[in-house]
Every structure is written in structure tokens, then in C-alpha cells.
Design brief:
Elements lengths: L7 E7 L4 E6 L5 E8 L8 E3 L6 E2 L7 H17 L2 E8 L10 E2 L2 H9 L8 H14 L4 E6 L9 H4 L5 H5 L9 H10 L9 E7 L3 E7 L2 E5 L20 H10 L4 H10 L2 H6 L5 H6 L3 H24 L5 E5 H6 L1 H9 L10 H6 L13 E3 L4 H14 L1
Parallel strand pairs: 1-6, 6-8, 9-12, 12-13
Antiparallel strand pairs: 1-2, 2-3, 3-4, 4-5, 7-8, 9-10, 10-11
Helix pairs in contact: 1-3, 6-15
């Protein structure tokens, strides 16, 4: 680099079973993007690059920490030129991190301290940070926190109905998927919804809902950890705490076994007994697959209703994430159950995956906004560099 100039910014988004990555120019033009998917759980990881054949990448025994150095060295760096900075999605920021932060030893330690609250994600986020620091020493690294977007949720919704001393120790509802919701909020003016009450649904392997007023988070379905709220691919979502206590008794007090059940063996996967992938379940003729989908839609509609009630109304609904963007049957069934709220689905637009899903005559509009957490991350790195 010369006089602070650079060719690329790198965004790394390490999920529970994937690594998404993207390179951006200083003008936020995307020059390379892709993902490594099917990481862990005995699967063979696959490298997906637009316009190229999907190929095996690594071995079925490789985890994020094994694959990241190879991904950066073999795929990213040959296309990057001079990298000005690297941004990382970090799932849990606790109360300490409410905005993007340049990563130093203290910040990294703080991120590591929060790993027990997001055990399926935070260690992978740290693996991305460590791999990027090793491959690009001296280059600024920026942590972008999923919880930060929800710092604006009122305390009466963030705190739990427990003695308030626990809230002062950090036992509050943080909310997640904040980078995705930030991208939705940035797109609302373009959709013709610059102000008002918007319920946004990030639906994927992990799923949640954000209730926004004027683009600011005021309600969230997720809580202290990414287990709460909606039914998900492998996670159950909202549970009676008594059910967790009962499970602990069934497992002889073994919290590790209960944690494995809740994080990896529940949700769509556990109910169907087939898969946590919505595409597989929608294509299946098995009764338990259909039951799992029915349960997912029922829980989704209920949480949308809760969000609308907390916002004291709803002016627009937004779907995002892998299921929200691609599963037309889920959107159709959900909107059909929300006709009482004024949503009239346009079947042709929904089937085609159009941006607007509802008829012109619909009392309220529903949209699809394609998730782009990597763009949000890259913009945060650019702002950090400009300071």
C-alpha cells in the first residue's frame, strides 16, 4: 500500500457450519465472493464460487480453524491485491460491544469471554480473526457484532422477569442477526418504507425476528443466547424453562448432553428426524417432514404477531435469509395466515421470488431483501479506516 491506498477490503462471516467471504473495492464493488459450506458434523466441506463448479474443499474432519488459512491463502489473496482491512462477523458482543471495534488483544479476549453464550458460533468467529491476523499481520481487523443492532431495544424487553440483580450481571436478552437487520434497515427507504413499524424475519439455519420503528430495533425474538425465539434448523427456539430442567434430570444432570441436544439435535432436524434443511423437508413426502414444516410456519406466524403487538402495529413485513429469500412455500403459507393483518400475497410474484410479494391492493406490503451481511461488514471496515 502507498499513502494508505488499498485495493480490497475483506469480509469474513463464519457461521455455525459455513464460511462466507467477500472482497470489496474502496467503492464497495464486490469483486470476489463465495462460501465454504457443510463444515463439521462429519460432512465433506464444499467450496462454492459463483459461476464455477462446486468442489470439495478439505476433508470431513476439517473444522473452521483448519479451512480458514487455506481459504485465505489459496482463494482470497490471489484476487485481493493490497488489502486495507478485514472485517469479521462476531455473533455475541454482550453489553460491552455495541458498535464495530478494531481488534486488539483486549477486544479479542472480550470476544473469547463471550464464547459460552454462543458456543456454536463464537469459536468460529475467533478462528476467522486468528487466521486473518496470521495471514495479514499488521492489517487492521474489525469486529462487527450481531448483538449491537438490538442495543436500542427498551430495557423492559431486554431484561427478564428475574431479580434485577441478574440483569446487572449481564443476564439480558441481547438479540442476534443484527448485521442482516442493519442491511434490511438500510434498504427500507429504497422500498418506499423509510419510516414506520417494520417486522423483519431473518430465516435460515438460524432464524429470528426484529421489530423496528423507523429502522431502529425495538423488539427481538432472540434472547440471551441464539437458542431463543423461532424454531430453527437444529435449535428449538422458545422453550418452557421447565422443559430444560426436565431434560437435565433425564440426562442425569449432564448439561453438556442437554446443550448438544438444544444446539444440534432439535428444531427442524429433531422434529422431522430427517434434516434441518428446509429444501429437503419441502421436497420430502414423509409425514414427519410435513409436521416439522407446519410447526415452523406456526411458530413464525406467532412470533410475527408478537412483534407486531409490541410495536403497536405493523406497516410492512420483510423476509430475508436463506429460507426467507428462497422458500416461496414458506412465505406463501405465512402470508396466508397473516391476511387478518392486511397482507394479500401475490402468488405469481411470490413464486418468482420478486422483491415485493404482495398485491398492489394489499393494505400492507411484504418484501424480500436479500441478506448481505458482508457488505455491512465491509462498510464498517471502511468507516474504521477513515477515522
Amino acid at each position: 500500500m502507498t499513502d494508505g491506498a488499498y485495493d480490497s477490503l475483506l469480509a469474513l462471516n463464519c457461521g455455525s457450519s459455513s464460511i462466507k467471504f467477500a472482497l470489496f473495492t474502496p467503492g464497495m464493488e464486490r469483486t470476489l465472493w463465495g462460501l465454504v459450506e457443510a463444515i463439521g458434523h462429519g460432512q465433506m466441506p464444499r467450496l462454492v464460487l459463483p459461476g464455477r463448479e462446486t468442489v470439495a474443499f478439505g476433508t470431513e474432519n476439517d473444522g473452521h480453524a483448519d479451512l480458514l488459512p487455506r481459504l485465505i491463502d489459496e482463494i482470497v489473496l490471489p484476487h485481493a491485491g493490497a488489502i486495507g482491512g478485514v472485517g469479521h462477523r462476531v455473533v455475541h458482543g454482550g453489553e460491552r460491544f455495541a458498535a464495530p471495534m478494531a481488534i486488539d488483544a483486549t477486544v479479542r479476549s472480550g470476544i473469547a469471554d463471550l464464547a459460552p453464550l454462543a458456543p456454536g458460533h463464537q469459536p468460529h468467529n475467533l478462528a476467522g480473526i486468528d487466521a486473518a491476523i496470521a495471514a495479514l499481520p499488521g492489517i487492521i481487523q474489525v469486529a462487527c457484532f450481531d448483538t449491537a443492532f438490538h442495543a436500542s431495544v427498551p430495557a423492559v424487553r431486554r431484561e427478564m422477569p428475574l431479580p434485577r440483580a441478574y440483569a446487572r450481571q449481564g443476564l439480558i436478552r441481547y438479540g442476534f442477526h443484527g448485521l442482516s437487520y442493519e442491511h434490511v434497515a438500510q434498504n427500507l427507504p429504497r422500498l418506499g418504507v423509510p419510516r414506520g413499524r417494520v417486522v423483519a424475519c431473518h430465516l435460515g439455519n438460524g432464524s429470528s425476528i426484529s421489530g423496528m420503528i423507523d429502522g431502529v430495533s425495538r423488539w427481538t425474538s432472540m434472547g440471551f443466547t441464539p437458542l431463543d425465539g423461532l424454531m430453527m434448523g437444529q435449535r428449538p427456539g422458545r422453550l418452557d424453562p421447565g422443559a430444560v430442567l426436565w431434560l437435565l434430570e433425564q440426562f442425569g444432570g449432564d448439561a453438556e448432553k442437554v446443550s448438544k441436544l438444544l444446539y444440534h439435535q432439535s428444531g427442524l432436524s429433531g422434529v422431522s428426524g430427517i434434516s434441518g434443511d428446509m429444501r429437503t423437508l419441502l421436497a420430502s413426502g414423509e409425514a414427519d417432514a410435513a409436521f416439522a414444516v407446519d410447526m415452523y410456519v406456526d411458530r413464525l406466524v406467532g412470533e410475527i404477531g408478537a412483534a407486531a403487538a409490541s410495536l403497536e402495529g405493523i406497516d410492512a413485513l420483510v423476509f430475508s435469509g436463506g429460507i426467507g429469500e428462497n422458500a416461496a412455500p414458506i412465505r406463501a403459507r405465512t402470508l396466508a395466515k397473516l391476511e387478518w393483518l392486511g397482507f394479500a400475497v401475490d402468488p405469481e410474484a411470490n413464486a418468482a421470488g420478486a422483491e415485493r410479494l404482495t398485491r398492489d391492493s394489499s393494505a400492507r406490503p411484504a418484501f424480500v431483501v436479500r441478506a448481505d451481511e458482508e457488505l455491512v461488514i465491509a462498510r464498517a471496515v471502511a468507516r474504521t479506516l477513515a477515522r
